[in-house]
Prior knowledge:
With about 160 residues, this protein is an alpha/beta fold. It has a single domain, classed as Nuclear Transport Factor 2, Chain: A, CATH 3.10.450.50. The protein contains four helices and seven strands, in the order H-E-H-H-E-E-H-E-E-E-E. It is globular. It starts with a helix and ends with a strand.
Amino acid sequence: MRKFICIPAAALIITITLIAAQTKGETMPVKIADNAACAMTQDEKAGILKSIGYYLQAAPDGSRKTAEKGFAEKATMSWSADGKLNVVPIDLLYEYFDEKKRPASGEITACSVAGDVAMVRLESDFDGALFTDMFTLVKDGDDWKIVSKVYHLKN
């Protein structure tokens, strides 16, 4: 009888440890700048930071799987190169994440929420490449999903 009780208890401890590790992984290193103009509820803030955090964490993880958690399935990425507009499926960004692990950081400098939609400006650094990223997010159930990423390479 003791073995029967001990085995489930050990399994429960391992499960709790794994859940705690996964939860830690979902607390992303994203912050809102002190001088940012962002008016939102705590729930909106938590959800938006979570999605943007997945985007930033995908680089050091070297994994599209991390980024996919924050983006809508049919999200797009846009930028201008030599004065020409480029719009591609978000899968192109996922390929970048899969290439190799890289350091990344970012800070939200502006955001706006209107019901179930939001716009976020993120100043980011991906392994020395500096970007201004603009994200459009839409509420999907309890989660916020990035539906578009538009970026400007600053250097």
